Amino acid sequence: xxxxxxxxxxxxxxxxxxxxxxxxxxxxxxxxxxxxxxxxxxxxxxxxxxxxxxxxxxxxx
Length: 61
Hints:
Elements: H1 3-12, H2 25-42
Helix pairs in contact: 1-2
């Protein structure tokens, strides 16, 4: 299904946008794009590792 077909399907079943409007293919495209980005962020693994840290406290006075 392409974006236009999904928008038509959502409108046919009576599902409005969060603001109560009808879906357009641009809405569907935006939702899919944001979901893809969110999944990429959740799948991201940190590459920086810090180990063997020593702290020294110096007493003033």
